[in-house]
Structures are given as structure tokens and as C-alpha cells.
């Protein structure tokens, strides 16, 4: 039976997909795409819990704020509650509890059974959460609210979050409100504050506490506590079934209370919230992709991946404490370094309204903060892993026709600032040479030499990315009729060539991007190694082999550098051969998922994302299909270890989704690389348009090579000429009439 817009697609979503093996997915409650509240458990086992969740360990609380799929260091885990049985003599000591059984989750719902006999059920809305507790009847029931609660970091990199100060006020009717202020985390953020407002539905006796570490300085029946010490409240109940409602906001606790009363009025049932959340996801995400596919495993992979790409960023429009604006505001970008490669392109297809808002938000952050972010969380830019990749996102939107309410004059000026003005150094101990907060820290070398010297960290990977960033400026300048800028930035986009050492040798191939000194000499470099592959090295999270395939905007120059199409194909196919990465075990030592691959190609990290598709440029579309399909079928599943690396805010899932669709985008260009769709499907493009993808003649597992392609019935490409498709044909803008675009693929 074909899936339709009335189908409950949430039945196919596996919430624990990618929660283990470094995937770091958040399995808790997210009531709608880009929701502010992400309510779920916080676990402790001595390792970093990036999303709060870990497959093993003790529960330390259930908190309202989380990220999903990120690495580096944990963020949030704030505004928490922890249920406890028996007397609570000291709420500052370890009150964590093992789980009695495996957690249960479905879209809009999460439950945990603790070894203490407590069952916890969770539901949520955009700004509020519902906690339902079932306590053992023979034991005293308590809920501890610890304002100092955050997700800790154990990596020793100086990225751990800090509680700065807090306050809480309680009343005898079960109401409490207050705020907590925190700093640091992965983006090295300064102080930020979240306000909360909570209610319990049962009569309550309460105490407030204050202290340092595990030493109490105060624990009494007063009605408030505040200061730089740990503060909080302990709420005790005479009944075994207790429900709590909590709202959050970033400007005032009064507004948090208002959101709570609007979104979860007193008496709201948990199942009502679950049903509403499922309706949100069905209508806003899942019903936009319909198919006649009947294989349950495939449908679960499809809809679980769609879910995973819509958890962050967080839409906090109207909730920005730093400035007032009529523009949209999105926070929790983790990170554009991950997302620009294929995620934002799919977001434009499936969520055109939200996508335009996200573009406007990036530009508005530049207006008020000075630079567009490459990453942002808790209302603060940071950290930029390579280039100024918001430039790529804006260029992609521009060339694909996003206009609406976007102020493109301002957008281009934001891009120019990235390209011309070095940001102040934020003195990150891991990369103290220049700013990694925003912008392009190595810009002086880029402008002076046309390459980046080893005086800057990540010199080679930055150079490759700066080239793509400048190509993005070229694209927008060209579209705006600014010929002088277009020529200037096109020339700068070719600077990656200055890092190409034709004499660098590896595996019988010559020519790789390598470090280059100020005097013009190349630094000796093993192309199979990136050293520590981190902030202080010449290459960030990928080897010279991988980065040498990354100048996608200048691909024909790259093909020429490698000896022509045939040699390019041989070189490219080499990265997919097993056991050619003996140094891989030393890479990314902090992440087992990134260290275990025996190929040079790394399916678990973004610099390799486009590589399987580059065969198209050398006339071997069949190899693009073969290699990309193998990666998708081998490294992805709906199991907890079903992602090959960090989800990276859904980047991994969107790579898989494009593979299912049978296309791959080139960011900042109007070209798609053709692979082979897994099944026929319809994509709702908005504006009453649907992209209809029909695949016939093949089997998605064994006979998937494209024999012919027709776009809208007018274009027919055959055999090895099936390489590229124009964006405007597959995704026409609204003004191009009412006819739905149709892509028909014959496979064998």
C-alpha cells in the first residue's frame, strides 16, 4: 500500500538510531521540528554524554535542553528534575540511579524505569515539558530541582560547562520559578541565562538548599535561594503519582510561565501532548516524502533519517535576549562546517519557509554580532572549524532562487566581511594563532600570499575551505551584477592550487594539497596522515588524500592535476579500497567510530561526503552509484550504532537521504550529481508543487545502475552521459507554472 498524507509515519521512526558508537543522537522528546525544548534523560558513566543520553550509566536527571548528534563537548543539560525515593538528607550528593530496564521512546514520548522503582514518562511542547512520575507506594516521593545541573565534560580540553549562579523561589502550592546562568561548553560561550517556571499537580512540602560541591550551607523550608553556590529545591509528596509542568524562556521567568500556561495548561494529559507531537511531525516533515515502498526496514531508515535532520537548529524567534529584531532567530547551529555540504540543500527542498528564515537569521546575527556564525549555541558564535561556511550556505540559497524576505544586499555585505576582515583573536588554547569564534582567522596569509602558511593552525584544510568560501562570494557577486567582485573572488577561489604539490607521493599517485611556507617552499607531508587531525594540526579531521578531492568548484582543474579523467578515476577509486588506511587507527583517537575504517574514504566525517559522487565528472556514473550505494547499505541502519560517526545535527542522515533520492548537491552551484534512487517517491516542495521521482526496471539492492534519465519528459540522457542535472529542472521556482517536476530513472 502506498503511503499517503494521512499515514502515521511516526510508526517508522526509530528514536535510538545513532545513539551509540559516537552517533550521539538525542532520543528524548522533541515536539516539532526545531523545537526549543528537547526533554530527555541525562546519563553518567564517566564518558561525555553529548546529547545527555548514553546506552549505559546512571540517570542524573531529566532536563529540558539538549543538542543532538554533536561532538567536541557536551552542551546544555539545564533545567532538570531528578526523582528520588526516601529521605533526602543532602541534595548536593550523588542522587543518580541505574535504570531497571531499557528506555522506551516514540515520537513525542520517552519513558525510563529507574532501579529505585520510579517510572518516569515525558512529553513536551515547543517551550514546555511534562514530567509524569510513578513512585513506589511504600516510599517517600521526592523531586530534586538542582539549578546547577549541566552535562559535564571529561575530555580535559577546557570545554566543560560551568554553572555560574542561580536562583529559585518556591511556594506551597507546588509552584517554583527562577533562573540559571552558565558559561563555556564546546563553543567557549560567555555567560548565558535560561529562566524556568514549574508546577506540580499534587500537594507538596518543599525545602530550598544552597552549598558548594557536596557541602550544604543551607537546607531549610524557606521560599528562595540564590547566589553563586549551587541552589535548588526539594519537593516531597504524600502521593505516588505526580505530574510536573515546566516552561522555559531566555528573557524572563514570567514569560516562561506564560508559555507554560499556553502550551500545557493545568490538567493536560500526557497522551494529548504525544498525539499533538506526532501530528506536528507527520504534517510538517514526514508527509512531505511519500512512497509506494513497502519494505519496513527501508521505511524506518527513511523516516528515522528525516526525523534526525530536523532536531536542530532551534527556532528561538522572539526569544533572543541580546537584541530586539523583527527577523527570525535560530540558535544551536552545530555546525555549518558539517551542514553546508548537503544538509542545507535538502532543508531548502523540504522546508523552504524555515530555510529562508534560517538564512535571514544568519544575516541578522551579522547585523548585531558582527559576523555570521559557522557554529552557534547559547546565543554565542563559536567555533569555526575551517572557513566561513555561512558564505557557502548563502550562496547556495542565492543561486537556487531563494529571495522572499531575504535582504540580499545585507547578505552579500556579511559575506564580504568574512572575506576581507580578520576577526579578533579569541585565544582558544587549542588554536591560539587566530580566532576560531567566527569568520576567517587566517585571512592575513590568504590575502598576502594566496595561501596559508604553517604559522596558522589547520592551514591546508582552511585554505581548501577559504577557496570554496570565495567561490560562494563569486556566485552571489555575479548574480548581483558586481563584475569586479565576481572576478576578484573567482581568482581567490583558485588559491587552493597554491597548496598543490605535484611531487607529493602516496600509493603510486603524485600531487596532493600540502602545507606551504612563507618562502614558497612546500612542507614535507605524508598524504596518508593528518597527524592529530585536530585544531592544532595542518588538516582538520581528514587526511591530505581526502582534502585533495575537496575543491568541488574547480573540479576540472583537479582532474587535470591528477593526470586526466582515467587517472582521476583510478585515484578516486583507491580511497574505497580496504586496508589502505593503516594509519587510520591513530586518527581521531577520541572517537572509535572515526578510527575504525580501513579505507582512506571516511564515511563518518564530512570532508569525504562528496567523494563517491565525483566519478560523475570523469564519465563513470556507474562507480558513483556503486560506491555510494555500498556506503549507504554498509554503514547505515536504524540500530543504535546505525550511523558511521557523529550525526552532526543530521548531516549524516541527510547524506543518506540524498542517496535514497538519487541525487547529490554541489553547494553553491545549480548542479546535482546523479546516482540512482532507491525507490519511487514524491517530495512535497511547497507552493503546491511535488517532485515526482519514478524508478523502473531495476532492483534497489542488485540492479541499480542508471541506464537513462528523463527530467520533466523533455530531457533524455543515456548511459554514461547520465552525470549531471540542473537544479532548476528538478526544483523549479513557483513562477515557472503549476506543473509538477518529474524525474524518471531507468535502472538495471
Give an overview in words.
By secondary structure, the protein is α+β, with helices and mostly antiparallel strands. The protein has 2 domains: 9-282, Distorted Sandwich (Beta-galactosidase, Chain A, domain 5), CATH 2.70.98; 312-675, Glycosyl hydrolase family fold, CATH 1.20.1610.10. It is built from 18 helices and 31 strands. A 9-stranded antiparallel sheet has the order 4-5-6-7-16-11-10-9-14, covered by helices on one side. It has a 7-stranded antiparallel sheet with strand order 1-2-3-8-15-12-13, with no helix packed on it. Strand 26 and strand 27 (689-696) form a beta hairpin. It is globular and about 80 Å long.
Structural topology:
Elements: E1 40-44, E2 58-63, E3 80-85, E4 104-106, E5 109-113, E6 119-124, E7 128-134, E8 141-146, E9 161-170, E10 175-184, E11 189-200, E12 205-212, E13 215-220, E14 224-227, E15 230-237, E16 241-249, H1 253-263, H2 270-284, E17 289-291, H3 296-308, E18 314-315, E19 330-331, H4 336-339, H5 343-350, H6 352-369, E20 376-377, E21 380-381, H7 390-399, H8 408-420, H9 443-449, H10 459-479, H11 483-492, E22 500-506, E23 509-513, H12 544-547, H13 555-561, H14 565-574, H15 592-595, H16 621-635, H17 651-661, E24 663-665, E25 671-674, E26 681-686, E27 689-696, E28 706-711, E29 715-718, E30 724-726, H18 727-730, E31 742-747
Parallel strand pairs: 27-31
Antiparallel strand pairs: 1-2, 2-3, 3-8, 4-5, 5-6, 6-7, 7-16, 8-15, 9-10, 9-14, 10-11, 11-16, 12-13, 12-15, 17-26, 18-19, 20-21, 22-23, 24-25, 25-30, 26-27, 28-29, 28-31
Helix pairs in contact: 3-17, 5-6, 7-8, 7-10, 8-10, 10-11
Amino acid at each position: 500500500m502506498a503511503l499517503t498524507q494521512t499515514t502515521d509515519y511516526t510508526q517508522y521512526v526509530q528514536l535510538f538510531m545513532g545513539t551509540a558508537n559516537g552517533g550521539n543522537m538525542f532520543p528524548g522528546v522533541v515536539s516539532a521540528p526545531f523545537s526549543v525544548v528537547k526533554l530527555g534523560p541525562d546519563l553518567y558513566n564517566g564518558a561525555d554524554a553529548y546529547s545527555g543520553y548514553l546506552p549505559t550509566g546512571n540517570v542524573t536527571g531529566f532536563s529540558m535542553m539538549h543538542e543532538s548528534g554533536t561532538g567536541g563537548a557536551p552542551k546544555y543539560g539545564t533545567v532538570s528534575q531528578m526523582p528520588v525515593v526516601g529521605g533526602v538528607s543532602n541534595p548536593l550528593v550523588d542522587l543518580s540511579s541505574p535504570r531497571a530496564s531499557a528506555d522506551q521512546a516514540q515520537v513525542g514520548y520517552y519513558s525510563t524505569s529507574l532501579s529505585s522503582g520510579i517510572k518516569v514518562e515525558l512529553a513536551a511542547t515547543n517551550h514546555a515539558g511534562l514530567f509524569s512520575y510513578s513512585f513506589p507506594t511504600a516510599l517517600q516521593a521526592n523531586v530534586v530541582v538542582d539549578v546547577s545541573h549541566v552535562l559535564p565534560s571529561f575530555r580535559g580540553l577546557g570545554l566543560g560547562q560551568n554553572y555560574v549562579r542561580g536562583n529559585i523561589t518556591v511556594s506551597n502550592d507546588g509552584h517554583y520559578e527562577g533562573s540559571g546562568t552558565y558559561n563555556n561548553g564546546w563553543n567557549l560561550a560567555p555567560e548565558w541565562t535560561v529562566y524556568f517556571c514549574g508546577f506540580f499537580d499534587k500537594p507538596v512540602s518543599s525545602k530550598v538548599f544552597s552549598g558548594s560541591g557536596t557541602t550544604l550551607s543551607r537546607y531549610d523550608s524557606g521560599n528562595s535561594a540564590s547566589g553563586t553556590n549551587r541552589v535548588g529545591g526539594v519537593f516531597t509528596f504524600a502521593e505516588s503519582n505526580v505530574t510536573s509542568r515546566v516552561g522555559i524562556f531566555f528573557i524572563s521567568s514570567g514569560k516562561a510561565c506564560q508559555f507554560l500556561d499556553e502550551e500545557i495548561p493545568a490538567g493536560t494529559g500526557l497522551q494529548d501532548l504525544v498525539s499533538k507531537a506526532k501530528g506536528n511531525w507527520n504534517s510538517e516533515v514526514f508527509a512531505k516524502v511519500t512512497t509506494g515502498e513497502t519494505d519496513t526496514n527501508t521505511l524506518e531508515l527513511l523516516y528515522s533519517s528525516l526525523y534526525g535532520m530536523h532536531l536542530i537548529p532551534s527556532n528561538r524567534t522572539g526569544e533572543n535576549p541580546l537584541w530586539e529584531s523583527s527577523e527570525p532567530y535560530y540558535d544551536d547551529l552545530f555546525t555549518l562546517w558539517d551542514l553546508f555540504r548537503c544538509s542545507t540543500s535538502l532543508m531548502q527542498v523540504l522546508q523552504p519557509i524555515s530555510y529562508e528564515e534560517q538564512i535571514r537569521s544568519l544575516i541578522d546575527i551579522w547585523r548585531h554580532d558582527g559576523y555570521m556564525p559557522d557554529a552557534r549555541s547559547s546565543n554565542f558564535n563559536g567555533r569555526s572549524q575551517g572557513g566561513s561556511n555561512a558564505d557557502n550556505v548563502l550562496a547556495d540559497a542565492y543561486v537556487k532562487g531563494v529571495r522572499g524576505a531575504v535582504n540580499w544586499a545585507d547578505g552579500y555585505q556579511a559575506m564580504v566581511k568574512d572575506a576581507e576582515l580578520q576577526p579578533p583573536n579569541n585565544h582558544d588554547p587549542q588554536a591560539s594563532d587566530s580566532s576560531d569564534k567566527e569568520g576567517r582567522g587566517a585571512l592575513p596569509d590568504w590575502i598576502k600570499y594566496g595561501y596559508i602558511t604553517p604559522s596558522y593552525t589547520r592551514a591546508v584544510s582552511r585554505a581548501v575551505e577559504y577557496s570554496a568560501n570565495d567561490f560562494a562570494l563569486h556566485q552571489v557577486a555575479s548574480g548581483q551584477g558586481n563584475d569586479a567582485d565576481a572576478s576578484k573572488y573567482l581568482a581567490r577561489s583558485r588559491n587552493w592550487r597554491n597548496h598543490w604539490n605535484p611531487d607529493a607521493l602516496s600509493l603510486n599517485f603524485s600531487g596532493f594539497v600540502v602545507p606551504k611556507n612563507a618562502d614558497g617552499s612546500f612542507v614535507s607531508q605524508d598524504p596518508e596522515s593528518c597527524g592529530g587531525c585536530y585544531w592544532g594540526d595542518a588538516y582538520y579531521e581528514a587526511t591530505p588524500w581526502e582534502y585533495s578531492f575537496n575543491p568541488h568548484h574547480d573540479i576540472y582543474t583537479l582532474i587535470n592535476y591528477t593526470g586526466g579523467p582515467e587517472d582521476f578515476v583510478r585515484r578516486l577509486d583507491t580511497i574505497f579500497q580496504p586496508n589502505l588506511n593503516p594509519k587510520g587507527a591513530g586518527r581521531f583517537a577520541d572517537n572509535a567510530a572515526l578510527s575504525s575504517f580501513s579505507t582512506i574514504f571516511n564515511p563518518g566525517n564530512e570532508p569525504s561526503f562528496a567523494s563517491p559522487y565525483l566519478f560523475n565528472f570523469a564519465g563513470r556514473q556507474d562507480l558513483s552509484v556503486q560506491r555510494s550505494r555500498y556506503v549507504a547499505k554498509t554503514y547505515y541502519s536504524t540500530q543504535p550504532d546505525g550511523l558511521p560517526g557523529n550525526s552532526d545535527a543530521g548531516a549524516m542522515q541527510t547524506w543518506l537521504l540524498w542517496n535514497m533520492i538519487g541525487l547529490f548537491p554541489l553547494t553553491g552551484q545549480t548542479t546535482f550529481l546523479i546516482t540512482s534512487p532507491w525507490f519511487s517517491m514524491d517530495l512535497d516542495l511547497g507552493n503546491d508543487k511535488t517532485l515526482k521521482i519514478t524508478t523502473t526496471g531495476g532492483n534497489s539492492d542488485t540492479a541499480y545502475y542508471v541506464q537513462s534519465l528523463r527530467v520533466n519528459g523533455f530531457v533524455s540522457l543515456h548511459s554514461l552521459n547520465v552525470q549531471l542535472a540542473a537544479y532548476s529542472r528538478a526544483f523549479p521556482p513557483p513562477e515557472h507554472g503549476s506543473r509538477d517536476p518529474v524525474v524518471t530513472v531507468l535502472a538495471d
